[in-house]
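FW: tagging you since you asked about this chain on Friday. Here's the raw sequence from the shared folder, copied in full. Didn't touch anything.
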Amino acid sequence: MVSSYALPLLAASVDASAAATAVASGDAHYARRAEGASAGVARPQQTDAAIADYRRAIALDPSSLDPRLKLLRAYFFRGGFCGASASDAIDIFTAAKDVAEDTVRLLDSQTGRSKSHVDSRTAGAVPVAAEVYLWAAVSWGQWAVVHPARGAWQHAPARIRDLAEAVVALDPAAEQAGGHVVLGRLHTEAPRVPFVTHWVDRAAGLRHLRTALSLSPDSPQIMYFLAAALLRLEPTSAQEARALLVRCATLKPRAEYPVEDAHYAWQARDLLADLAATPSARR
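HL: got it, structure written out here
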């Protein structure tokens, strides 16, 4: 059975005007993604409508990067913030990874990227290059979470690393310092496997997360990821981690990220509750 999240068949000819109309409709739906949200979980209807519009735009104009970028972003929100079931998450993130691969091939042909190396002068002609590489890295990462064995076999960690390093090279501050966030999580969370992820560096991961926070100091997700990493890897920084969690849990969600910020606030509250219930964590 073909997933309802997979791309439709491409149109026989390009219709850029109709594609632009579909993108505009998708943007309108995506802007309403927080309608009816509660406790950091959104209803899926508006995001599903946005996904359908972006898929239609790609079918009408396959070479356009804009709907591809927005589709990857919408897949991430749908799988991560709409209470997706395990089977739905597999469908969503598999579709996202497939779109990401196709889109990266298209973008690489314009930027000449080779692994993590990308010429900023060439990529400068593609204004969304950093964002596309970032959401491709995120899509690979989410897919690897739901397919850990296949992710290792397809060298997902190295693919994610190369894409995120390209983002940092092009625009370190792009999408709330997303390149640094991805690298920070990769280096602090990925298991070290000989000949596969031998390059994982916990200290480098913490540096990336700290850099991300310096570039995007009001991002609750960065506060949460840095705090969680410090608690796991640097026990002497438990007080700093706790302060980050308290700030994350009490910040008012930003207008542009109402569901996302609320989600990480709830995550921070849960972790603070776990710490309070663990005697060894009260120091």
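FW: The chain has 13 helices and no strands.
HL: agreed, and The two ends are 53 Å apart (CA to CA).
FW: great, closing this out.
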